[in-house]
Amino acid sequence: MCHDHDSRPPAPPRTGDVLERGVLTLTSADGTEFSAAYSAPAGEPGVGVVVLPDIRGLHPYYVALAERFAEAGAAAVAIDWFGRTAGVCDGTGTRPEDFDWQAHIPRTSPHDIDADIFAAIAYLRSRTRDDLPVVTVGFCFGGSHSWRQAGGRLDLAGCVGFYGKPSVVGEAAGRAHLPTVMVIAGADAATPVADQLRLADTMRAVGAEVDAVVYEGAPHSFFDRAYGEWADACRDAWAHVLALTDRVAVH
């Protein structure tokens, strides 16, 4: 897992007022209802972010991350993976600590994930503007699927992945065309750094602009406010992510 249950994302380097925050239910193209969390800045957003969580789905970490993006000026929606197999989240709108994600992850598919991302993009634009540029920002399982979007067909302006697996990206790497940020933990035990850098090279070879940054010695899931020894890496990772969102934003 990317984070323990009490983990929360580090603060962004710029902080503004948040106008709206809360959990909700979205509907995918096949009629599936799935849980999500939306946050909006007080000012007019120039960019939207779809947050793609790790294997646990809509964990409180990602609800908080949507709010962090709103503080940084973006409209953001974090989505859950498991509407088709586990229904919408109960109670707080997030998956509980004891949620059996291992039983549900194998039942996800790229097709269904893309359909849910499409619904999240549509929701962001319905709440802001029809031409809002949107990027995906994912972690671990979600980071892999965010990188995969670089070679996909959704109406996105870019994609960011933390700690992803090139094997999930698969043949989409050969169609990569969107600007992509790869945040790589140098001591990631889950995926060799060399494999991630080879993926970056593959994507560049077909024309994608890839910003691949390696944080030497950093563990998988270093992007956590509790990891004081990685505070500088967290600030730098935020800088790379916001450089992309600022670049594609409408002003």
List keywords for this structure.
7 helices; eight-stranded mixed β-sheet; 8 strands; 251 residues; globular; alpha/beta
What's the main sheet like?
8 strands, mixed
- Globally, the shape reads globular
Major beta sheet, strand line-up: 1-2-4-3-5-6-7-8
The H-and-E topology, N to C, reads as EEEHEHHEHEHEHEH
Please report the total strand number as a whole number.
Answer: 8
Please outline the helices and strands.
Elements: E1 18-27, E2 33-41, E3 48-52, H1 60-71, E4 75-79, H2 83-86, H3 110-127, E5 134-139, H4 141-148, E6 158-162, H5 166-169, E7 180-185, H6 193-205, E8 210-215, H7 231-248
Parallel strand pairs: 3-4, 3-5, 5-6, 6-7, 7-8
Antiparallel strand pairs: 1-2, 2-4
Structure, briefly:
The chain has seven helices and eight strands, in the order βββαβααβαβαβαβα.
Explain what you see:
This protein is α/β, with parallel strands linked by helices and 251 residues long. The protein has helices spanning 60-71, 83-86, 110-127, 141-148, 166-169, 193-205, 231-248, and strands at 18-27, 33-41, 48-52, 75-79, 134-139, 158-162, 180-185, 210-215. The chain has an eight-stranded mixed β-sheet with strand order 1-2-4-3-5-6-7-8, with helices on both faces. The longest helix is centred in the middle third of the chain and has 18 residues, at 110-127. The protein starts with 17 loop residues before the first strand and ends with a helix. The relative contact order is 0.16. The mean pLDDT is 95.
